[in-house]
């Protein structure tokens, strides 16, 4: 049945696959890894995973991690692709490789790096990233764990002064790691020097028990992340050696002299690493959800047409409205993430090779906004794909709930999204000032802030959509600036008066940025590829405008007729996407095994699949008469007395 749908695709599939993975080499690597998982018995689809206890899920994930390690270099950020293939849980050591090692590379001295890096890479020093506390997460400067320098012994005394200061949430802390990168307030001679990272052994090498003076455990079950041992930890005057302080930017001598050196802004580098992975790799989970939803919408039929033929649900305009704008957004985010990766690498090379910090502010701002935008997109996309699959979308065997569960924490971790949007807003305001005072200093991506008005005939062309998205963000930024300035106390105004306007303005920047990247990707492509990408880009641009056009409305830059045109044009493009929908999702090259969905196989009978699982595989049915039946008798007894 799907073969006929596949044949309708109007563009070369392989070219699209290469675009989605950033080139032929990356796509080939992806396929190679996928076939490793497809052919390994431990990674075969197992929907009984969700019938298992958390204990058993954790053990299975541990076993899987060992097998994955045999094939993959976990130190390579591209190894995150396996998580895209194995969504039942994130392998052990992701925090170690994606957060601890990058932080070490940026914050440790050369001496410390040469002492530890090999041990870190071969997991002989296995650590977690212990920053967040019960009482404070986003507000890192107000963490309360202290590291007090003891001049007598030249040691740091790490202490948790109250319950709120308990480290809470670090992944891999609860059960596994032996070391922790602990962020604590440095105090020397009664003076505070701010929050700094301390690399500390926390469990005994032989027994794996917490060292004396440290209490550790798992924080408990969560929404998703069931195999991740997010932990808690408190210190009771625990003594750590002098060189536990990662000291590239701050040194404490044996007799307590504190010396700062270099540019501590480099510290942003480690955060950028993980945020870049979130943008680059985790965005792919949106495409996974869309593959399931689009395929299922082709298998599924409801109600009959005039010829008494049942209608595929993807043929309903309302179903297209649920899925096609998300499909367009998926492509937009993937193309945006390619540009972001380039920006992050360029910034990193400039800093490390030439001590050139000129791109740091721009990279930090764009990456903050993109992390917020893309992680919202993936969670929203997963949820809408689930809803678009009716009842079956609710079942784990669809492969959809797990995507939502595993992806929605990304909205909160590695910089909570609202806070990140506010950081981008700060940068937008700075560039707004520069537009007037030193226009040459405004980076190309932010030149749109000079826009006050735009005269466009056709609101639906790519160029005009970009102009309108830029103008919208420009107006909203100016509106936020006015709100901010209308109160004398700036700090109070930022926190309690202008926050909504600032966050809103920032949230409209990434759609503009994505459209620029989309246009860049479309240029120089073969005709058919160009045509279908142009349709997707227009749907994306129109959707972003329709959803966020408050700025244009505020300054009468769009009228009701134009809004109607936007809506009509988007609807008129859906039939083209309908023909190409299957090819557009299948360009990702996801195998059945990696999709882990009974409702969306490449080919086959979805109803037979679901029936087989329920009747033959569901482990709850192994016992013909379940123990729980005893309670029915007890219920009868209770009711008999009523
Ligand atoms: C699955 C998962 C894994 C994690 N792994 C780790 C880890 O390995 N290591 C680690 O150290 N931590 C980890 N964390 C913790 C995570 O980093 C924090 O939860 C995150 O930084 C958000 O901080 P918070 O919980 O303090 O939220 P809060 O800052 O308390 O946010 C709560 C709400 O308040 C709002 N808010 C707060 N401040 C402001 C403001 N200034 N302006 C406007 N709104 C504001 C936020 O927008 C949000 O809506 C993990 C968390 C999760 C969920």
UniProtKB/TrEMBL annotation:
Naturally occurring in which organism (per UniProt): Paramecium pentaurelia
Keyword tags: FAD, Fatty acid metabolism, Flavoprotein, Lipid metabolism, Oxidoreductase, Peroxisome
UniProt cross-references to Pfam families, sorted A to Z: ACOX (PF01756), ACOX_C_alpha1 (PF22924), Acyl-CoA_ox_N (PF14749)
InterPro entries per UniProt: ACOX_C_alpha1, Acyl-CoA_ox_N, Acyl-CoA_oxidase, Acyl-CoA_oxidase_C
Localization (cell): Peroxisome
All copies of domain Acyl-CoA oxidase C-alpha1, residue ranges: 268-429
Coiled coil: none
GO biological process per UniProt: fatty acid beta-oxidation using acyl-CoA oxidase; lipid homeostasis
Start and end residues of each Acyl-CoA oxidase C-terminal domain: 463-632
Cofactor list: FAD
Phylogenetic classification of the source organism: Eukaryota, Sar, Alveolata, Ciliophora, Intramacronucleata
Catalytic reaction(s) noted: a 2,3-saturated acyl-CoA + O2 = a (2E)-enoyl-CoA + H2O2
The family this protein is said to belong to: Belongs to the acyl-CoA oxidase family.
Location, primary (coarse class): other
A single GO cellular-component term on record: peroxisome
Domain Acyl-coenzyme A oxidase N-terminal: 15-124
GO molecular function annotations of the record: acyl-CoA oxidase activity; FAD binding; fatty acid binding
Protein name, entry field: Acyl-coenzyme A oxidase
